[in-house]
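Hi support team,

I'm opening this ticket because the web form for multi-chain structure prediction keeps timing out on my end. I have pasted the exact lines I submitted so you can reproduce it. The total is 812 residues across two entries, so I didn't expect it to be a heavy job. Is there a limit I'm missing, or should I split the entries? Thanks in advance, R.K.
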Amino acid sequence: MPEPTPLALPEGHPFGPHNLPYGVFSPGDAPRRVGVRLGDHVLDAGALAAELGSPHTALLTGPTLNPLLAAGRPVWSEVRAALTTWVTDPAHQAAVERHAHPLAEVSLHLPFEVGDYVDFYASEHHASNVGRIFRPDAPTPLTPNWKHLPIGYHGRSGTVVVSGTDVVRPSGQRKAPADPAPVFGPSVKLDIEAEVGFVVGVGSERGRAVPLEAYRDHVFGLCLLNDWSARDIQAWEYVPLGPFLGKSFATSVSAWVTPLEALETARVVPPARDEALLPYLDDSSAEPGGYDLRISVEINGEVVSEPPFTTMYWTAAQMLAQTTVNGASLRTGDLYGSGTVSGAEVGQCGSLLELTWNGERPLELGSGGRSFLEDGDEVVLRAWAPGAQGVPVGLGEVRGTVVPRT
Amino acid sequence: MPEPTPLALPEGHPFGPHNLPYGVFSPGDAPRRVGVRLGDHVLDAGALAAELGSPHTALLTGPTLNPLLAAGRPVWSEVRAALTTWVTDPAHQAAVERHAHPLAEVSLHLPFEVGDYVDFYASEHHASNVGRIFRPDAPTPLTPNWKHLPIGYHGRSGTVVVSGTDVVRPSGQRKAPADPAPVFGPSVKLDIEAEVGFVVGVGSERGRAVPLEAYRDHVFGLCLLNDWSARDIQAWEYVPLGPFLGKSFATSVSAWVTPLEALETARVVPPARDEALLPYLDDSSAEPGGYDLRISVEINGEVVSEPPFTTMYWTAAQMLAQTTVNGASLRTGDLYGSGTVSGAEVGQCGSLLELTWNGERPLELGSGGRSFLEDGDEVVLRAWAPGAQGVPVGLGEVRGTVVPRT
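Hello R.K., no limit was hit. The queue was backed up. Here is the completed structure from your submission:
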């Protein structure tokens, strides 16, 4: 019986040949290059493509995924098909092993240059919870527009950081309703938002809307995303123009972008719509637009929530259609987040704001009681999706530790 | 008496050697290069610098201003001093003329690659007017936070376009309060916002605030900006997360970026503050942070408003301090807008929303009555500032024509 090779994976490994997410890595101080994750290794995709004579080598040499993202869906499929062949065909095993680096020995970088970053608010449970907490006197928790369009706003693309980057606690103004004037200091309500991010590959022209059915021609893949939020700063600043400093200090994304093709088996029908949708958003006769992604939120190694992405009211295709319906153009590298993923149950909420009901019901963790995050807390988001034959498709984790400003 | 040279300017020309704004141009189909405006000519700054042996030639060769922006204040001063010498010293006249192109014979391009675009809301008159129109039932027109911090939000950097670019009328959802459900179609309340934009040269580190006094180390210069706005789309979408599609379809900037050094004589003390400011915003003992910029708004050749920038409550330095006080980093090419500039008088408002009081009092123009913009309308923003010896410093115009979506 032959020795198992270094790249042999146990049955059902979530980063097996059925997954093959893309990232950007560097071995030591070497320049950044495009990597593909296989098990606990990173394949140097550009070097492998060059050795095996791929016509797409130039798209895979780094320092970002942007050239691959811009290449378009037919090329995405060709590259993925080639990679699948390389990692499964024994004829290529030696080449693959020559270009494999143990994950633990490389640095992972922000995988793409971010164009515009838009954050949505697509979970009905999350939006309802936030409405109850922030606007207790409003007649209904959801604003009247919520079921007619996916609400979104632009975030700061310059502070999108890769998993593993420390998050410096933001300072800012806060004012409780009874305070006579705002005070300044480090946020005392630092929170997370567990989200899924969608990465635009192919841009679009200004003045043209991207219809629902063109979603997969434009969106390359998805990542996990933590939209760090300072609730005290946000509550004081956000009326009337929306969140700004409460969010703009950091948004973490996974180091791995999972191509949509790897998630075909995870597609599901979104929840029933309570309001008739205008034609540009009406997906009642479209292919299933949801994804069955099972997310977990860990604080200091303890799982505090398991948000189910199946519960999201608005789909990624609808968010893209909304972004462009006014004629706004897309660029390669545009990123949009789903908004916090929260299910119907308490243990399915993607933010501490909800999990502790704005601090009224602190979590009891092994590391102590938590209303919001303390300095030193490490947050990890993980997710997986059901794949073919019951093999999970793993998404890259998003890890971040809160540090005080020095 | 010698012949006047092609570059001889009449006394007091607003684009004389005291001004020298930067842009990006191409003569015909040639590659984009950095230009400096002198009168009605564009000097090819890179070619001139190369011929005259400048050490900064590489910063001036294009295709954007970003390398110059990133170079920092000492270099900005050196480049400006060299340009001033070149265009005023007869010894360099022949070289300057060799590299001068008539404005009418070149194409002007977006002068810098935009990082993040933030839009503020810094005019008390504008914010009060909008409050009265959009929130008539609120106890006060200004929200409680307004005088404690400059309110801002992120806009879409991918749809920032240069003056002269047509603006496609956006489509979207709108719903009047009495309508049973939203309807979809082209905006019927397309508006302008006359603003001043500030262009960040030198970036900053994540986790560090940029104090008021570092403003001129980071901001390179300013431009005119038209933040096109669809009021009907905005009114329906903006609660609770702020403007999105009502603004994201286009933001026009002037082709010329005026360096701050050209506007030293235009600095003025901002209005008295009605609330004590937290230390990071307190400019009571700082150098004057306002600018005396006289703006005019033309529709189809007719001046409809003359907004005075002196009335802005918040200064550019305060907006920058606010943007970074939470630790958000800056990047070269970040752009922030002042928000609509409106004075106390009706004829000083920078938006049709205010000028027509949301359409209740249409303007009577030679081209017909106008509540909001019609297809084919051309809007031009112009501005100038007082310079030394009474010579005005001209800002680049922002021109745009509304076209229907095809």
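A quick check on our side: Chain A has two domains: 22-109, 117-403. Let us know if the file doesn't open in your viewer.
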